[in-house]
Amino acid sequence: MPETSISFxxxxxxxxxxxxxxxxxxxxxxxxxxxAGRCKGDELLLEIGVGTGRVALPVAEHVRRxxxxxxxxxxxxxxxxxxxxxxxxxxxxxxxxxxxxDDHFDVALSLHVLHLVADWQAAxxxxxxxxxxxxxxxxxxxxxxLRVLWDEVNARLPTLQLDLGATHMPTxxxxxxxxxxxxxxxxxxxxxxxxVPTVLDQLRRRVWSATWTMSDRALxxxxxxxxxxxxxxxxCIPHALExxxxxxxxxxxxxx
Length: 256
Description:
Structural class: alpha/beta
CATH class of the domain at 9-145 and 167-191 and 246-254: Alpha Beta
Order of helices and strands: HHEHEHEEHEHHEEHHE
Low-confidence stretches: none
Shape: globular
Largest sheet: 8 strands, mixed
Oligomer: single chain
């Protein structure tokens, strides 16, 4: 885990371009989250690590109001610029010190953020504090991008273990952080085309947070190994690959 929490301040200008869903999928993902959180339309929902609102904005259609918290002011400015008339508030705050009263939110949501926090267990305790005792915490995750290729890259670079889109946290980390399971896991499978030259370009430009602290030498080794794996598998660097991914939603409640 990082020694200090990682801010995405530097990523605001390219975040939506590199993390978007295929056309038409975002409303479906929002519906999956709303079903898991048992949303009826009158809930106050907190999303931690809200970023530019790629999930919060469509989820806002299912609740009374969304409050999105993030450490990066530049990301929140993007969210405010996009929200139009949706009931979404943007709050700059540290997840370890949320500026809200106890028992305040009906539903909480996170997606690929707690692995960036210096003390994710403390962040979960703080999340539980601001949630209603009967509230639900929806923990969502995107499937690995080009999983087969990254599995092979990791096998060749075992000391690196880089996997774009993966968090390397235990699957049941909310339970380890003081929550209890509150419903079945939900999975949404989808397919998108991934442009391989773009992936290589993004690696070289350090678009992904996993590369931000890597040395130039380690990054060069990563890019070279990725190219080798792709060429061995396909005989060339293909223009694009069909990439099957899974959006997973798990639901918990504060265990108190």
